[in-house]
Amino acid sequence: MPQAQIIDGKEIANSVRDDITHRAAQLLEATGKRPGLAVVLVGEDPASQVYVRNKDRAAEACGFHSVKHTLAADTSEADVLALVSQLNEDEEIHGILVQLPLPGHIDESKVLRLIRPEKDVDGFHPVNVGLLTAGERASALVPCTPAGSLVLLKRTLGDTLSGLNAVVVGRSNIVGKPMASLLLQESCTVTIAHSRTKDLPAIVKAADIVVAAVGRPEMVKGDWIKPGATVIDVGINRIPAPEKGEGKTRLVGDVAFDQAVDHVGAITPVPGGVGPMTIAMLMANTLTAARRLMNLPEDQ
Ligand code: NDP
């Protein structure tokens, strides 16, 4: 069996970002306005700091107006809510992203629900969740990781996924559930698996498309996957890598890549697969939000 096509998420993300940069420049020329993204970070979680820095840099590289709000870990819930309210009103800001997780004393859902749905570029507000679930994707803002995963699938398999069997392993609100909604809208036959699923290997085996979003290193074994299937590995897991030296680590996905790569049709690597697409889709959502808030058609 030939080796799988390795889906180059970095390259595809770069092409999406180039397109957004071009469209943002056109918007600036036509209206004098830039898409504006505000990212809010509460506390000093090192991983969150890296994510926020990357998002801020990406927004600047796309020619956006980018604002970063870094608040101390002990900032009160009331102050975070006040900042979100202020950003809701700010005409230069079209996208608001509150980096999760928030410190324990802040009610995450209260903060996310306060974000104006039109500016909710993470797509976590119940209004956007509802629109996506109701099949009204055209007026929703869709969570970035599943939206990016769908772009990777379409660039690999073509625009029509209709009739394919898809299995999504994981049912989180951030990845699994919206991914399943998107695939259902593409007319896939969708199975959502989770920690209580019986005989997961048999369920995975029936799938033409496998999306793994579990958060368990290399849990989906190569021989579970049907030959020729397309695999999107959302998982990002850091594991010890003694071969690189004492105390060193490396990133792996939720799929045992080395076992799968010799018989699946196509597979995303970790890193360099879904990860870069998440940020690219955040930029896409911000541009979409900006055009909608300016009452401009979206597809230009
Ligand atoms: P969650 O922890 O919120 O959800 C994990 C899901 O996996 C749950 O639905 C859980 O089931 C299910 N699960 C856990 N163990 C098993 C098992 N043994 N068999 C089957 N299902 C299982 O994680 P997220 O969805 O937030 O993230 C998943 C992964 O994706 C993580 O590695 C995360 O780092 C990565 N990620 C990557 C992003 C990117 O940009 N590439 C962005 C977001 C996440 P149950 O509901 O029953 O508990």
Descriptive report:
The protein has ten helices and eleven strands. It has 300 residues and is an alpha/beta fold. The protein folds into two domains: 31-118, Rossmann fold; 144-275, NAD(P)-binding Rossmann-like Domain (Rossmann fold), CATH 3.40.50.720. The strands form three sheets. Strands 1-11-8-7-5-6 form a six-stranded parallel β-sheet. The longest helix is centred in the N-terminal third of the chain and has 23 residues, at 9-31. The protein is globular and about 50 Å long. It starts with a strand and ends in a 7-residue tail after the last helix. It binds NADPH dihydro-nicotinamide-adenine-dinucleotide phosphate (NDP). Residues 145, 169-172, 174-176, 193-197, 200, 213-216, 234-237, 274-275, 278 line the site of NADPH dihydro-nicotinamide-adenine-dinucleotide phosphate. Keywords: Amino-acid biosynthesis, Histidine biosynthesis, Hydrolase, Methionine biosynthesis, Multifunctional enzyme, NADP, One-carbon metabolism, Oxidoreductase, Purine biosynthesis.
